[in-house]
Write a structure and sequence with these properties.
Elements lengths: L2 E6 L21 H15 L7 E9 L7 H14 L1 E10 L8
Parallel strand pairs: 1-2, 2-3
The structure holds iron/sulfur cluster.
The site of iron/sulfur cluster (SF4) has 10 residues, from loops.
């Protein structure tokens, strides 16, 4: 089994106990961050062309805090760059108040 983990380092606010890489005041950089992420995914596609991925996991940070177009863009790029199994499990971490 192989999985892809995508880190989304943005949150609505920083919790006092949190050691994860998350930057509440940097949501304005989401566009640039995801543009770099799409490039990195493409850059790794050749080296990982023989793998089939069974899981895709969006963690953070709070992935549900960014605009859905970025998650959609990441999934689109993953599916165009890698072999993803037909029944792949896709997970997105959410925080109450950032999703409906
Ligand atoms: S990653 Fe989770 S625990 Fe950490 S600041 Fe964001 S919401 Fe809080």
């Amino acid at each position: 089994m192989a999985g892809i983990y995508i880190h989304v380092p943005f949150c609505k606010q920083k919790c006092s106990y949190c050691d994860f890489a998350s930057f509440p005041k940097e949501i304005g950089k989401a566009e640039v961050y995801f543009a770099c992420l799409y490039k990195e995914l493409k850059g790794r596609s050749v080296a990982l062309k023989d793998k089939t991925f069974d899981t895709i996991y969006f963690g953070g940070g709070t992935p549900s805090f960014v605009e859905p177009k970025y998650i959609y863009g990441a999934l689109k790029q993953i599916y165009s760059c890698f072999n993803v199994s037909k029944n792949a499990e896709i997970t997105l971490e959410v925080n109450p108040g950032t999703i409906d």
